[in-house]
Amino acid sequence: MDRRNWLWRRKSSEISPADTQSSGSVSSHSERFSDEQVFKNQNTQSPEVTSKAMLDDKATDDVKSLKEKLVDALSQIRLKEDSVKQHAKVAEEAVSGWEKAENEVLAMRQQLGAVTQKNSALEDRMAHLDCALKECVRQLRQAKEEQDQMINDAVCKKTQEWESLKSEFQSEVDYHSIQHKNAKAEVAAFMERVPDLQSNLDALFTENLNLKLELLSLTEEMKIRISERDYCIQAAETASKQHLESSKKLAKLEAECLRLRSLARKAALFNDNRSATASSIFVESITDNQSDCGDKVILLEADLCKMGILEPKETEPGCYDSTSHAFVPEIGKYENEKAHRQNLVDTHVEIDLMDDFLEMERMVSVPDPESEIAFVPVKSLAAQPNPLEVTLKAELQCMINRAAEQEEKLEHVEALYTEVNNALSECQKKLQTSQTKLNKTEEKLEDVKTLNAEVNCALVECQKQLEISQTKSKEYEEKLVELKMQLALTNESRQAAEELAKAASAQKKVAEARLVNVEAEKESLLVTVRFLEGEIEKERSLSAEKLVRCQILEEELSRTKTEVESKEKALLAEYLVKCGNLEDELLKTKTELNQATSKMAAREFKVDQEKELEIAAQQFAECQKTIASLGRQLRSLASLEDFILDSEKSLQTSDDLSHRPEQGTDLSNLHSNKLRMPENDSELSIFQRPIIQVLYELEEAAMLHCQAT
């Protein structure tokens, strides 16, 4: 019914805003209409209708007051509708919270079932671990026997290996000592040879320096001679040019001489009947021509003297010496050019002479009437010897002699050039031989250096090998000392193990006494549990009456739900941690047993100790069983105590609520009376403290026993 009423209210609330909107729109339309009417009335006013206007103003004031009242009523209606909506939302939230609480209670029950299943699985696992422990003890015995055999075999092998290593090491030491001695002898021999090699090196360096100096001097001489050769070649070219010019001039002079001779012959054929004046004029002309020819010859000689070809006779020997030093031999390629030029000059001179002879014959063949007069006096002149011809012949002979001398000088210079070339080639050969010697000496020096480096490396390696051998010998000696120390330690540990076994037996007796005390405490706890169960039954009868009040606490359940979940999770985590700790302790015991087996492998035990080990393993298994049973009892006690505390606190809250009036139950009061879950760690520790102490003592005793074994 309540839900239907809420839904109906919801519909009314949904409809109300639209109605308010419609009413608001109607009021707005009415206001607009009244304003329009007022505006029209104002426009249509006249001074005659003032009384009607006053009445209209009063009506408008009344309408305005009514509108304001209507707006106030609408606002109140809206506020009431909002409050109704809020109440409906609160009711819906309460219903949803109740449904959620029911679902969460079901989920919690399912989780409790899962936790119980996990506990049963853990118990099964504990039983399986107990069986595995027994198998481990059996395997420990087998491993002990196998390890004893392996230790004996390993000791025999190690002794044999030690002896073989010792012999090998001794042989290596002898071999390295011999090598060291040989290396020392080689180094001493090499050091004796070092000064000889050094002296040879110094000598080679000095020879190399001397050869370099000679090479430099020869290169300078070569440069000087090459420059002289170039200068001589240039001088020879200029001389050859001047010789060609002088030969041309000589040919011209000979042609003029022939022409003069022909003229003299023609003059002798002239008639003697010519007048003295004519003959004197002719003689003057001849003397003028002769003087001109003499002047030309003098000028030619001066030119030749300037060029260095023709020089005065007084200075001929000195000039010969200077020219002999000035001229330089031409290269082989210029010899052909010289011969070719000389042939050209000879042919040119012959051609000029032939031309002059032909001209003279023409002049003789042509008869001249005027010249016949001059022939008579010239015969006497032709019969006289011509001094110009004599001088020209003498000069020609000198020129021929000088040309021959120049050819001899050229041959001499060519011979000198060949000698210089030969000397240069010999110097180059010597330089090459010196370079080869220098390269060989450098190679020898490098070989000596490499030998020295190799000897040094060999010495260093020998020293390193000696050091390594010494370190190895020291290590072997240290190993021997360590083995002796280990033997002494094993004997001491054996004695300590016997003492620990005795202490373990004493601690075992103490643990048994504590177990008796724990059983007595267990009986007292069972009595308290029965008493609490009776109280729980009484509280259940009371809780049936107070179920009605639980409806008031629905909101509180939704808030306390998170706390309950967190505490349950914490409890589950604690139980899982405890189970994990127990498993870890079992694993630790296994690892410790494995370590004990590894230690037992290095010792020799007697039959009495094996019996004690079996007894200790049985006692350890019994201790584990008691630990498992105590853990189960602790879990049952913890669940019972949690349930008792929850029921007690729920009763307290219900009593508090019954004393208070029902009208003042707000959310703030409900917060103060929340269901408080017990702090399991602090409350359970009162019961678990002695049991946990006993468990720790049992584990310590087992550990000590394992170490002793």
UniProtKB/TrEMBL annotation:
Pfam families from the UniProt entry: FPP
Keyword line: Coiled coil
Compositional bias per record (Polar residues), positions renumbered to this chain: 14-28, 39-49
Domain of life of the organism encoding this protein: Eukaryota
Region (Disordered): 1-53, 651-673
Biased composition (Basic residues): 1-10
UniProt keyword annotation of Methyltransferase present: no
Composition-biased stretches (Basic and acidic residues): 29-38
Coiled coil: 126-153, 393-599
PANTHER family to which the protein is assigned, alphabetical: FILAMENT-LIKE PLANT PROTEIN 3 (PTHR31580:SF49), FILAMENT-LIKE PLANT PROTEIN 4 (PTHR31580)
Stated family: Belongs to the FPP family.
The name this protein goes by in its record: Filament-like plant protein
